[in-house]
Specification:
two-stranded antiparallel ribbon; five-stranded parallel β-sheet; single chain; Oxidized Rhodanese, domain 1; about 110 residues
Amino acid sequence: MTYTCIDISDALPIIENNAAVVDIRDLVSFETSHITNAVSLTNDNVQDFIDSADQNQPIIVCCYHGNSSKGAAEYLAAQGFKEVYSLNGGFSQWSAMFPEQCEMGR
């Protein structure tokens, strides 16, 4: 399995069409702000996510700037997820382009 890097503008319609968004940034950053309805994915909860997630649902992996998400996307694709994306530009670019698509806390 493999993943695809996706630009912010191309990711929005996929997210609006019920893709799962996983955020691999640290918990403090995630709690400060994240893409609406994103799930914080850490080493502590990744196996639970893999076990419970719908592997046919598209997944978009978000990090700070779009670099670390590539490794996480590759890992999730190797775990059997069918449609996995790494978000180019990460949360920093997302929040600059779509601040209304961000929320705080969780």
